[in-house]
Amino acid sequence: MNVSFPIESGRPYATDVDDDGRSQRTGTLLTATAHIITAVIGCGVLSLAWAVAQMGWVAGPIVLLIFSLVTLYASTLQTDCYRNPTTGKRNYTYQEAVRSILGGRKFKFCGLAQYANFVGVSIGYTITASISMAAVKRAICFHREGHEAGCHTHNNQFIMIFGVVQLFISQLPNFHKLSWLSIVAAAMSFGYSFIGIGLAIAKVAGGSKARTSLTGVEIGIDVTQAQKVWNILTAMGNMAFAYAFSMVLIEIQDTLRPNPPENVVMKKACSYGVLITTFFYMLCGVIGYAAFGNDAPGNFLTGFGFFEPFWLVALANIFIAIHLVGAYQVFVQPLFDFVETQCATKWPENKFINVEYPTKLPLYGDYNFSFFRLIWRSSYVILMTVIAMIFPFFNDIVGLIGAFSFWPLTIYFPIEMYIAQGKAGPKYSWSWIFLKLLSYACLVVSLLAIVASVRGIVVGVSNMKPFQSVS
C-alpha cells in the first residue's frame, strides 16, 4: 500500500517552499526518468559487447536480463523508503533512509559503500571520457592516414580537459540545479547508443565474419581456462555497473513534487528508466557481439571495430564525453552535499565554511559563492583526475565499481529496509526467505567479481608505467 504525506506540518504550502520548509521541488516523472537514464546509461553500455562475448549467445543475454530484473525489483522496494510510513518525514538521502529505518552500524556501512562508489564512479567516468575524447582525434587520424596507422595518442591531456570542465560545473550548488544537465546528458546517451547500434547493424549487414559461439570466447583459442573464468567474473561486474543507480535513487526522488506521491512517480520512473536502458543494453550487447564476435573490444566505440564513416564514430564519442560530464555530477553531487553539510554542522560558527557571497554570473543569474565549496570541490576533482591518470584500466575499473556497489547498495540495504518496515511479512515467511536468498546470492556474485577485477588491475599496473596511458 502506497502512503503519501503531502503536508507534514499541517499548514498550507507557501509559494516558494515545500511542506518541509525547503525550496519548492519541481521534479516530474520526465526529469526523474532523465536523471535515472543519465545515471544508468554511462560508460557501462560501452563494455557490454565485450561482456556478452565472454559468456556467449546463451548466458550473455540471460545474465544481462537477470541484472535488469533484480535491479528493477530492488529499486521499487527502495522508493518506499523516501518517507517514514508513520510520520511522513522525508529522508533526503540514501544514508538518511538507512539511518532512520535500520540505524547504527548499518548506517555507517551504507555511508562507506555509497561514498566509496561515488569516488570510483568519478574515476571511472574520467577515464572513459578521456578515452572517448582521444578516440575523436584517432578517428580523424585514421581517416587521413589509413586504418593501418597507429594514430596513438596520450590520454592524459584529455583526462585533464575533462577535469577542468568538472572544476567549473562542480561549483553548481546542489542536485536540484542539474535537471537541465541530466536532460542534455540523457539525450547524448540516446545519441551514442543509436550510433553504436547502427554501426554494429551495418557491420553485420555488410557480411561481418566475426567468430561467435554459444559459450563465448573459446578456451585454447582465445583465452586459457583461467582467463575465461576471470573474464566472465569481470564481465558480470561490468553488467552490474551498467545498472548502477540505486545509490542516487533517494536523492533523485527528493527532487520530485510531493503531488502525486513521490514513491508512485518514482516507481514509474524506475520502470521506464530500466526498461529503456535494458532495451539499449540488449541491442548494444547482442548486436555488438554479432558484429565483433569473440574479439569484441572492451569499449566498442573506442576500440575501433568501426572506422568509417569517421565523422559518425567521432560524433558518437563526442556524445559520450558530453554525457559523462552530466553523469559525473549526478553521482558526485550527493558526496559534495554530505561533506558540506557535515562540516557546517560541526563548525556552525566558521565563516569560511558557512558564509556565502551573493553574486550574479553570466548566463546563470544569482549565485551564492562559497570559498569552502570552491576549495573542497576543486580539490576533489583534481584528486580524482590524478588517480585516473595512474589507473586508466577501463574494463577492470568498471567491473570493480559495479561489483563493489551492487550488493550493498542495490540489493542489501533496499531489502533490509523493506523487511524492517514489516512489508515482507513475518520472519521465515516465504517472502522473507526469498528476499534473504536473493541477497546472499548477489553477495556471492559481487565478491567473485571484485576478486576478478582487482586481479585485472594488479596485472595491468604491473605491465605499464603510471601517467603513460595511451589510446
TrEMBL record:
The keyword Transport applies. Keywords: Amino-acid transport, Membrane, Transmembrane, Transmembrane helix, Transport. Residues 1-22 are annotated as: Disordered. One of its GO terms (molecular function) is amino acid transmembrane transporter activity. PANTHER family: OS05G0424000 PROTEIN-RELATED. Residues 26-457 form the Amino acid transporter transmembrane domain. The lineage of its organism: Eukaryota, Viridiplantae, Streptophyta, Embryophyta, Tracheophyta. It holds the Pfam family Aa_trans. Its main location: membrane. One of its GO terms (cellular component) is membrane. One of its GO terms (biological process) is amino acid transmembrane transport. The keyword tRNA-binding does not apply. InterPro entries: AA_transpt_TM. The chain crosses the membrane at residues 29-50, 56-74, 115-136, 180-202, 229-250, 270-290, 310-331, 374-394, 400-420, 432-458. This is Amino acid permease 6. It is found in: Membrane.
